[in-house]
Design brief:
- The protein has one domain.
- It is 94% helix and 0% strand.
- 7% of the residues are buried.
- It has 101 residues and is an all-alpha fold.
């Protein structure tokens, strides 16, 4: 009877240690995609801000050069928004290809 209890305790100990190792592995795997998503979000935000900022500055400069406020600024802001969205869609296409494979 005692040997039967010892065997059961040993099996239980093995199952507990196996479950603990699985949860540790799962915690490590959970952290990696989150950091990738944060990096991806930062990249998308930077693409949008940079394209709108650069195009806005160009539009502002051309407006000052030709004294045509605010027409070139508006045109270049629309171009900046378009360029930013195009970059975001490129990033999304790459992510979708990676997820499919």
């Amino acid at each position: 009877m005692k040997k039967y209890k010892d065997d059961n305790l040993k099996k239980l100990g093995e199952r507990i240690s196996s479950a603990k190792s699985k949860t540790k592995d799962a915690k490590i795997e959970d952290k990696q995609p989150n950091s990738k998503l944060i990096g991806l979000g930062m990249r998308v935000a930077l693409e949008m801000v940079a394209s709108i900022g650069v195009c806005g500055f160009i539009g502002w400069y051309v407006d000052k050069l030709f004294d045509s406020t605010p027409w070139f600024l508006l045109v270049f802001l629309v171009l900046g928004i378009t360029a930013g969205l195009k970059s975001v869609f490129k990033i999304i296409k790459v992510i979708e290809k990676d997820n499919i494979n």
